[in-house]
UniProtKB/TrEMBL annotation:
InterPro entries: SusD-like_2 (IPR041662), TPR-like_helical_dom_sf (IPR011990). It comes from the Bacteria. This is SusD/RagB family nutrient-binding outer membrane lipoprotein. CDD domains: SusD (cd08977). Keywords: Signal. Transmembrane segments: none annotated. It comes from Sphingobacterium deserti.
Length: 494
């Protein structure tokens, strides 16, 4: 009897084990199917990369414009936490980290599109790559370029810093290649939040940027033939023809595509005010764009005679808060760049900036004034001024172009061009700063309480993290370029 019971137990155990084995076998057989998310993205494609590339890079540069670009170029000024306005800059790693992060996606887009033979996507990747690297090198000087973004592919974690001259040669070559690639294949562009897949406009942007960067290095190299070559072949090298072609990102009323500053706290926004430098210039010209760039002072708002008043850059905290009788007498930044950014007019004005038609016209005006190209510098200049008004949805007053300080004069052509270009580049990220460093227009002076020996900074110091993560490459760049501080000019600025 005992033997029989034990035999039955063994049979039950074997049967159970067999059943369990069958269950596990079935589970193993269907494991991959059961644990696969049918909605998961298993393969990255260009259309998934492109919107993030555009949005992230443009937002990074717009944020840099708000936090430091508008300040250093004296379009805005601070009344609280004024270290930035006094050139106590500290570690400026945000631009570096943010843009190199985006460049990983740009590199992936370039490789994917090249493998697939999708020249339109590849051309767009080269345009974005060129613009992003230009911001990095213009902000810092020599930066990782030829060996950058190779950590995953080549295990290269300490890339060399390329001399800026070589970086610019690469940028210009890439824009030439982008012009040749765009339109040479027929794939439809998806995910394009800048131009909605309009390849002809991407091509115009490539060539407009090409002209910007040729002018950027014109103090170091003779670029006349290259500029003439682009302008002399409109069929091969189309460029911006109006504000319709602008490389500016139109934000949306809804997250995550809103104008970045729209989401800031009111207190943070109100630390920034109209700069007296810009405010006084606009007042001297009777320029109505002040009503876009700023608001009437709180003390005069709603009155029959609203006042626009700026605060000098570079004051200490106490002087800034008490200037002109207090903050009620200092203009805040225009509402279209904050709460009004999601209004219909705000969506047209507060845009992310890569490059636009007015800037191109000022570049051509300068080139003509310097004899680099033929054509009328005056005509290009006046076209640029008119387009700059249109770009911020403001009517240019009759007679504006004829008044003192604005009317084009050969003897003062570069000063007039530079000043109007500076006004037109309001809130365009760091571009106004880069261009001012090259031209010296308008004439700016460091604020009275600046902490940089009365010098306006001309670059960012390298991120502190580079001293530990890439010390040898950084040291070689510093030895070649000069002291790693905010007063060492970059190659094209020497």
């Amino acid at each position: 009897m005992l033997y029989l019971k034990n035999t039955i137990k063994r049979m039950h155990f074997i049967a159970g084990a067999l059943a369990l084995s069958l269950v596990f076998s079935a589970c193993d057989k269907n494991f991959e199917e059961l644990n696969t998310n049918p909605n998961a993205i298993l393969r990255v494609t260009p259309d998934l990369l492109l919107p993030t590339i555009i949005r992230s890079s443009v937002n990074q540069v717009m944020g840099d414009g708000w936090g430091i670009g508008n300040i250093v170029i004296q379009q805005t000024a601070k009344i609280q936490f004024v270290n930035t306005d006094r050139y106590i800059w500290g570690d400026q790693s945000g631009t570096w980290n943010g843009l190199y992060t985006v460049l990983r996606d740009v590199n992936n887009l370039e490789q994917l599109s090249e493998t697939a033979g999708q020249n339109n996507y590849r051309g767009i990747s080269l345009v974005m790559k060129s613009w992003i690297y230009s911001v990095l090198t213009d902000a810092y000087g020599d930066v990782p370029y030829s060996q950058a973004i190779q950590g995953k592919s080549d295990q290269r974690f300490t890339p060399a810093y390329d001399p800026q001259e070589q970086i610019y040669a690469g940028i210009i070559a890439d824009l030439e290649e982008a012009n040749n690639l765009l339109g040479s294949t027929e794939e439809v562009i998806v995910g394009d939040i800048l131009y909605a897949g309009n390849i002809s406009r991407w091509k115009k942007l490539a060539n407009a940027l090409h002209l910007r960067y040729l002018m950027r290095i014109s103090g170091r190299q003779n670029v006349s033939a290259q500029i003439r070559g682009i302008l002399g072949d409109a069929a091969k090298y189309p460029i911006f023809e109006s504000n319709e072609d602008n490389g500016t990102l139109r934000y949306l009323p809804e997250l995550p595509n809103q104008f970045p500053v729209h989401t800031y706290r009111v207190g943070s926004f109100d630390e920034f005010r109209l700069s007296k430098t810009l405010g006084d210039k606009l007042a001297a010209y009777g320029d109505p764009r002040v009503q876009v760039f700023a608001r009437p002072t709180a003390a005069s708002a709603g009155s029959a005679n609203p006042q626009y008043a700026g605060v000098p850059n570079g004051l200490d905290d106490v002087a800034a808060l008490n200037y002109n009788g207090g903050v009620q007498n200092i203009s805040r930044i225009g509402n279209l760049y904050f709460e009004g950014a999601i209004s219909e007019r705000g969506l047209n004005v507060a845009r992310g900036y890569i490059m636009a038609y007015p800037e191109l016209q000022f570049i051509l005006a300068e080139a003509a004034a310097k004899g680099l190209i033929s054509g009328s510098a005056k005509a290009y200049y006046e076209s640029g001024v008119s387009a700059a008004f249109e770009m911020v949805d403001t009517n240019m007053p009759a007679g504006y172009l004829m008044q003192e300080g604005v009317a084009f004069q050969d003897a003062q052509s570069l000063e007039r061009i530079g000043t109007q270009k500076w006004i037109g580049l309001f809130f365009t990220g760091l571009e106004a700063w880069f261009d001012w460093r090259r031209t010296g227009y308008p004439a700016l002076q460091a604020g009275p309480s600046n902490q940089n020996n009365n010098r306006i900074p001309v670059r960012f110091a390298y991120p502190l993290s580079e001293q530990s993560l890439n010390a040898q490459s950084r040291a070689a760049a510093v030895a070649r370029q000069g002291t790693d501080d905010i007063n060492t000019a970059v190659w094209w600025d020497n």
